[in-house]
Amino acid sequence: MGQDIVVLGVFVADTSYRADRVPRMGETIMGNSFALGPGGKGSNQAVAAAKAGGAGSNVHFISRLGRDPFADMALKVWDDAGVIAHVTQHDDSYTGAAYIFVEEASGDNAIIICPGVAGTISTDDLDAQATLIKGAAVFMTQLEQPMAAAYHGLALARSGGAVTILNPAPAADLPGGMLGLCDYVTPNESEARALTGISVGSVADATRAAEALLDAGVGTAIITLGENGALLHDGSTPVHVPAFDAGPVVETTGAGDAFNGGFAAALARGAAPLDAVRFGAATAAISVTRKGTAPSMPELHEIQALLEL
């Protein structure tokens, strides 16, 4: 088996607005800046994995696009990053888009996603790529596309022996048995609470949430904790991985995607889970020092340099 990573997910065009605060309903305020760029959790993760993977890794992305300027953007982004696209294009809907508000002082964000035609991804899309999925080293998905497609992709990957990663974002109720298909689940604090009912405000809380996920059938739980790093629990001893400092935080949008992409790239190369979490944390640390989502994803040599400090 090679180092192939297959990602199922959504591309959306990020329309990013920076302002001092969120406007109240009915209010218009002046913003500080606007940017248009590539986004979508799955697409961001595929770009991150491709840039972090280095020679010998192939990252494949399964999705749907419209036929419009945002689709053209998606195809160029994947081509530039070295992502191999397995997408269908459709005339009867639109390529996804997202509204991202960034609070100027903190870099924190609030997001609305309209997935467009990617919201109609079906199990047929996965069946069409079944050989690719089953032969992958790593299969990763999120929850921006329909749940049935994510579930089916995980099941196909598991049947072929691929390592399966679920990034359960945005938070949603999961069907029975889905967590049992996951070698790794990578929620952040709010997603962990949605899955387990446990509020995560500390490493100890994260450990309890991870144990609940393990009890639900997950192979290994990884709770990402933002500036506090991540908690890895494989059923034996939980390990807290501190965050890396790669410089001043500019924008946290896409940090979770950077982590997941870097984590998947490291696993595909054969890294031990703890080393892969550290690699993912370093990937995320660099990404938050830059504006944007996909454009902020670091190259392999940058991640290696931070890990060696």
CATH superfamily: Ribokinase
CATH class: Alpha Beta
Largest sheet: 9 strands, mixed
Strand content: 15-25%
**What is the third-level CATH name, the topology?**
UDP-N-acetylmuramoyl-L-alanine:D-glutamate ligase
CATH architectural label: 3-Layer(aba) Sandwich
Assembly type: single chain
Q: Name the average pLDDT.
A: 95
Question: Strands, helices and their partners?
Answer:
Elements: E1 5-8, E2 12-19, E3 33-39, H1 41-53, E4 59-65, H2 69-81, E5 83-89, E6 95-103, E7 109-116, H3 123-127, H4 130-134, E8 138-141, H5 147-160, E9 163-166, E10 184-185, H6 189-196, H7 203-215, E11 220-224, E12 230-233, E13 239-241, H8 255-268, H9 273-287, H10 300-307
Parallel strand pairs: 1-4, 1-8, 2-6, 4-5, 8-9, 9-10, 10-11
Antiparallel strand pairs: 2-3, 6-7, 11-12, 12-13
Helix pairs in contact: 1-2, 1-8, 6-7, 8-9, 9-10
Descriptive key words:
UDP-N-acetylmuramoyl-L-alanine:D-glutamate ligase, single chain, globular, 309 residues, nine-stranded mixed β-sheet, four-stranded mixed β-sheet, 35% helix, alpha/beta
Give a quick rundown of the structure.
This protein has a single domain (5-11, 41-94, 119-307), classed as Ribokinase (UDP-N-acetylmuramoyl-L-alanine:D-glutamate ligase, 3-Layer(aba) Sandwich), CATH 3.40.1190.20. The protein is built from ten helices and 13 strands.
What features would you describe in this structure?
By secondary structure, the protein is α/β, with parallel strands linked by helices. It has a single domain, classed as UDP-N-acetylmuramoyl-L-alanine:D-glutamate ligase (3-Layer(aba) Sandwich). The protein contains ten helices and 13 strands. It has helices at 41-53, 69-81, 123-127, 130-134, 147-160, 189-196, 203-215, 255-268, 273-287, 300-307, and strands at residues 5-8, 12-19, 33-39, 59-65, 83-89, 95-103, 109-116, 138-141, 163-166, 184-185, 220-224, 230-233, 239-241. Strands 5-4-1-8-9-10-11-12-13 form a nine-stranded mixed sheet, sandwiched between helices. Helix 2 links the parallel strand 4 (59-65) and strand 5 (83-89). Helix 1 runs parallel beside helix 2. The radius of gyration is 18 Å and the shape is globular. The relative contact order is 0.15.
